[in-house]
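B., you asked whether I could sanity-check this one before it goes into the benchmark set. Here's the sequence:
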Amino acid sequence: ANPGSISVATAGVGTGQQLVAAAFMKAAGVKFLEVPYKGSPPAFTDLLAGRIDLFFDSIAAGLPYVQSGQARGIAV
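And here's what the prediction gave me:
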């Protein structure tokens, strides 16, 4: 209903995270506001602070945040 109202972080243009976000948007028929970062660590910082809504990353990078309760894993 509100294209671009959900923000998704990417670890930079052309990275795996950006490609996964683009593929998800296409498959789901939704449009997120893409916010490019210079790598995963600053994206996780903003995700945990609530400045962005969503971030696609590897399970190895995200698992500690999920296990500590700081983030919620949606899919693997």
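One thing to flag: The chain has a mean pLDDT of 90. Otherwise nothing jumped out at me.
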